[in-house]
Amino acid sequence: MTTRPAPPDRPAPPDRPAPRGRDRRAQLVPGPTGAHRVTAAGRPEAAVIGGGIAGLAAATALAERGVRVTLYEREGDLGGRLTGWPVRLADGSAATMSRGFHAFFPQYYNLRGLLRRVDPGLAGLRRLPDYPLQHRSGTHDSFARVPRTPPWSALGFMALSPTFAWRDLMRMRPGAALPLLDVRVPQIYRRLDRTSAWDLLSRIRFPEAARHLAFEVFSRSFFADPRRLSAAEMALMFHIYFLGSSEGLLFDVPGEPFPQALWHPLARYLEGHGVRLETGTEVERVAPAADGAVRVNTAGGERRFDGVVLAADVTGLRRIVAASDALEDTAWRARIARLRTAPPFLVSRLWLARRVAAHRPGFLGTSGYGTLDNVSVLERWEGEAARWSARTGGSVLELHAYAVAPGADREHQQRRLIEQLHTVYPETRGVRIVDQRHEWRADCPLFAVGGYADRPTVRTPDPRVVVAGDMVRTPLPVALMERAATTGFLAANALLAQWGVRGQTLWTVPDKGRCAPLRWAAGLAGR
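-> structure tokens emitted (527 positions)
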């Protein structure tokens, strides 16, 4: 749909936005310098392909500087892997289904900066009071009382955790753990990308009882088996959330479903800046032209742009690049073709006729319960679920199973996940299920052992075409949703710099270890 153009006197975004976090060591990453906005005459036009976090960040940064932007999204709504869609429950209630829980950590400076465009105080996010972890053996861990500033965060957690026995700590090999204490990008990939997360913790002699902490908190965030996940990616996660940042491990969640809380307001913001939103439109291929334009083809025809941001997921990026023969760099195209997705995962949402026990947390990480990785009690923090619970006296639960075997019987896995819930929360056994929805997906990037070299960077062999997404390589210490937002802004910056326009200032967690003696020791170990 065509939207109204942005007012010509719209003020530019601030050049040095505050990180809005507590870590005074957060790193400023200046954007390119230049004019505040493109000139009215000869305004460049850009296509952003993909309406997830990366594409939304790119479209925002471009449109705020006066670039004419068309955003193409294959699905019917924005949000990418955080989209949502309306459903009608068996009791007649209207509800919103999605692909499940996501944690918005305070370290996500650039994602939160994107959300502040429509919610300056982030009032739509709610801080969960804890992130408890429960093992089938009976041990429980909590982050509520753990200090947030390294190294006291690590020491405090080990002191408070029942899974760290002194005899196990005495067996650990501190020298093998030194790379975790001074994580820098890309150096950490040179050191650990060819090692699996499982092998790294084995090398450190990480206590067996505590391994579920590393895998449930960090490795499983990538929807991958730790034996296939790059140890470099896990080390980066340790740095971002635990050893390199003083923001802590408690996180926020949206107070309403993703579309209502995040993407619909941001869509209105983008339309107000003249962005043309083409949802339900799949891009087939892109083709750089000899006259400097880039042709973008959809089922509706061809349009020409001055620059293109490829912000599709792994599957979409592979498909577009494979069909875009005019992108002639053979080696680059081959690397894109080798990108892979993580194993399938299952999100099951249950609307129960009776509430779970009042002491159940809003989010619980689990280990040792088969395929069950976590349980959310949505009415603890999501308004839509809370209203349904207040009206019916029931609970809305969400269950996650990551890295399910690709050939697994899906109906069996769905039943099994509910059976595992009954073990974790026995009061749910025998409770009538008013409705249930099961979502199977397999579209998250796989950060495989040795796969770093194949991942694309923001810049491509053609300066008119840039890439953004959570699979993209960047020299900044970012991951997951924050990597998507950051690379979206970086992709926009790359185009803006070509047009002589000032770009978006970014922030990251510290780009090296916090303790100088430990950095020195880690440097010696890496020689």
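The longest helix spans residues 480-498.
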